[in-house]
Amino acid sequence: MLNGTKRYISNGGLAKVYQIAARTDKDNPMMNSLTAFLVPSDAKGFEVTEVWDKLGQRCVQNGTLEFHDVEVPAEDQIGEIGQALPALANLFIRHGSNIQAGATVLGVAQRAYDLSLQYGHARIQGSVPLLDHQLQQIRLARMAMKIEASRSYLWRTAWSTQLEEMDRKNAMLSKVFASESAVQVCQEAMEFWGAAGYMRKNPIEKLMRDALSFLHSDGTNDVLTLKAAGFLEDPPQVDDLIYSPRVAEAAAGR
């Protein structure tokens, strides 16, 4: 029997079947107390109570799901009892959900760059193209730098998912890096376009709004960064090549 509320769910109100992770044991830690279920959209007691009007990503519908004594038959349980969270973690990290989100927002940044490059050649300011001004050259160069850094990080992380000993923190951090870089790229694009970038009839303001949504989409950046910190490497030991005696002395106040 499911009861509860979940907000901002992608495709909420559009999907015909929902996969729900519900707390089935309040006495155990969260890692061992979530169980997954399938719930059809016409289940008694299930309803979508709100479709949210969003700043960006407006073509993706997000809804609030509410469950009031929704009965789920045993055959609609997915996997083992209490094992939904490890499976979800595997989806986000090993199967690349975070990486896919990072790749999506990378596309937003790339589009902002491409449009700005075109604008810089076409827009005449001070009797010369905008790109003849050194300040604007610096803006575009910094945009290109952040885009390529994000792309390389995402590619490397995606490649590493096939490794048995994948560095799990990179799946989370590559999404964080790509989304924060995309916001910075779009902000540079807004400055590059000047007042024209702020106008709704031009494309940059829309890209800015879409980029901002990825700071929270597929996991908020603060939470993902905190989780990634849990996968930081152990410190080097005395017999390791990277070990520094001076670090140990400095830590001891000597």
Word description of this protein:
This protein is α+β, with helices and mostly antiparallel strands and 254 residues long. Helices cover 46% and strands 17% of the residues. The protein has helices at residues 84-93, 97-122, 134-160, 169-193, 195-198, 204-213, 221-229, 245-251; strands spanning 2-10, 17-23, 34-40, 46-51, 62-70, 77-78, 124-125, 128-129. Strands 1-5-4 form a three-stranded antiparallel beta sheet, with no helix packed on it. Strands 2-3-6 form a three-stranded antiparallel beta sheet, with no helix packed on it. Strand 7 (124-125) and strand 8 form a beta hairpin. The termini are far apart. The relative contact order is 0.12.
